[in-house]
Design goal:
mainly beta, 7% helix
Length: 71
């Protein structure tokens, strides 16, 4: 997890959060779950980038499983 605040000249800050949260099964806590997402999301200009390997019918209706889709 990396969070960077970019301060463009004469503009409001842009927060960029880069998430790579590779879970190793349900017995191991996922690092990104411990992040203060409320603090990050309170800013008006936020970009969240993530490795979207999770399977979900929400963004892929042809998916046959829902692995890692909850988080």
């Amino acid at each position: 997890m990396q969070v960077v605040e970019v301060l463009p000249p004469d503009e409001e800050a842009i927060i960029i959060a880069n998430v790579y949260d590779q879970g190793k099964g349900s017995e191991v806590p996922r690092p990104a779950k411990g992040v203060a997402w409320g603090e990050i999301a309170r800013h008006r200009r936020v970009i969240i980038a993530r490795d979207m390997n999770a399977h979900s019918k929400m963004w892929n209706p042809k998916s046959i499983c829902n692995r890692n889709h909850n988080f």
